[in-house]
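Our consortium's second objective concerns turning raw sequence data into structural hypotheses that experimental partners can test. To show how far this objective has progressed, the report includes one record in full. It was chosen at random from the queue rather than selected for favorable results. The single chain below, 63 residues long, was entered without modification.
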Amino acid sequence: MTVTTAETGYVVVVNDEEQYSIWRSDHELPAGWQADGPARSKDECLDHIETVWTDMRPRRVRG
């Protein structure tokens, strides 16, 4: 059986520069990144990122 993207769990991850990405929930988080909320669908993760990541510049250059 093939698992579709909507069925696969993802987490939103954020780094120290407040940059966001998504990561499969069944994989260990990459170094330097922390989960930002619970596992959810890929679309839900992307919607969350669109809502919270309003300035794509790294934190260090935002002043």
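The partners drew two points from this record. The two ends are 50 Å apart (CA to CA). Helices lie at 42-52, 59-62. Both points have been shared with the crystallography group to help prioritize constructs.
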